[in-house]
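Much of what follows relies on a compact textual record of a protein's fold. An example makes this concrete, so a full record is given next.
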Amino acid sequence: MIISNLCAVITPHFVPLYIYIMSQYRLSQLAPLPELGGIKIGNTVGHGGFGVVKSAVANFHHSKMVIAVKFVHIQMAARQRVTVKKLIREAKIQGACRHKNIIAMYDYGMDSNWVWMAMEMGSNGELFDKIEPDRGVDEEVAHFYFIQLINAIEYIHRLGVAHCDIKPENLVLDSGGNLKLTDFGLAVVFRKKNGPKRLSTLPCGSPPYLAPEVVSKKYDPEISDIWSCGMVLFVLLTGKIAWEIPHPEDPDYKYFVENKGEVLVAPWNKLPIGALSLLRKLLNPDPQKRITIPTLKKQPWFAKKNCFMNSEGLCKDTLHLTTRLLVSLYINLSDEEFNKVSETATQASTTKKLPETQPVEYLMDDLAPSSSLYKDNYKSSKMFASSQIEYTEHTKRRKLKRESNDDNLIFSLISKDPASLQFIGKGREKAISDKISELQLNSRCAPDLLALSLTRFFSVAPLKQILLTILESLLKLGLRTNRDYEDNESMVKSLSESDSLSGTVSIPITGRDSGNLMINGLIRITRIADNLNARKVEFIKTKADPLEWRRIFRKVTVLCRDIVYVEK
């Protein structure tokens, strides 16, 4: 209970009933997005509690540039204690931080309903979306991104700015595979020019990543940033958070402190020796004894040469780095994995107490379905022979007919989506490398293709079967979905009516994770193109730890394996 209360204090981003009510409408119904001169708005590439991030094409200096535009709904932001003044301040601070590892802020503005920020596009998406839960990423990859993160933090600290919300969600990747720090919404200026350092008094940040001193009356935000960098490194290497919150009431943190960092249990005992030694210095509970960046850069593990990095600190082999990063994102649909997830889900559903609050749906944006993107930019391909896979003795092999042009187009579209990389089994590294090359070529026509979240799969099964399978899977996992319906059949009927009207179905997800913290989001099912019998199933997070959200996606996908389209 104490931990839950602390989390509420540190992250005052509550989700009131107002948000639930307004979530029943598209953003365009709340207020039309402002027209921006010289900027053509495209598809949605990111979601937030009170706005969206969209790709766009801007005319800068007589040339076209693909950028991202963040739209924040003023009234809804105010309901979560985020004022216009704070939003403009965020844009100004980020705009002043010009570094190769920081997302560039180009312009910002507002009207009566929206604050908008035009910034550099993170063309390869968010870093956390590439971290496999409970596994992490390759050590060399983690080392590369940690160096780039420290370079960014060292730069802003020289400017007298502390980020105060360093976490994988706020780290994106550009087209070259380089890390870019973003989201300066909680950033503070702790020193102006050559003036004295100012301590912070406002507790802020995400509980798993914030330093223990942040909950005190006064703390040094520069030093607390170092702790957060250490937590990001831990997540990169393990795919897990070290603890829910750095407080004595948290047993994992208590154990860490009592043993002075000499933790001999998993996943600590699986960390590389050099990285473990550095982590103990980064995660020193005493901020006065915590390692500083100048000393950090002299540590053997940090200072060692990285095979991906050139002399300028940037990626010298994007294809190789991207392949190594994505190779661990494998969703195993075998009998063994299915049985394991089923057993775990059954145990959880019998013990987990479901939340009594209203479910929260994401604010749907006003863009047309992504089918136009695919139709305009993808051509038919015969590279992959595809079928539904036979998984159990009770499941008959479903061979999909390829007699019509529509069928050929379906196969072509799905095979060229980055999400399909997660289901490649044999010869995984080479297959991903080959496919990344193809996707990078396609991204020239669709620049936001690789920026989209990978928490999605495709299906060519009938809609009713898709819906029933998903609903049954969510029920197994203890994620409530049908509170407003008598049973799954009645919910399917209602959702099918929505599909016939708009081509889109949204299934709300609400529950609690292993730390008893709220999980809110939705599963959105859309047709990949008009009049084609294939659908995209997206998992859109509203409120949840990103690693936990990917765990949910992975578990639901495994339980739904009979409707998941994979390449043979």
In short: Residues 1-6, 11-25, 352-404 have pLDDT under 50 and may be disordered. The longest helix spans residues 139-158. Residues 335-567 form a domain with the TATA-Binding Protein fold (CATH 3.30.310.80). The longest strand covers residues 63-73.
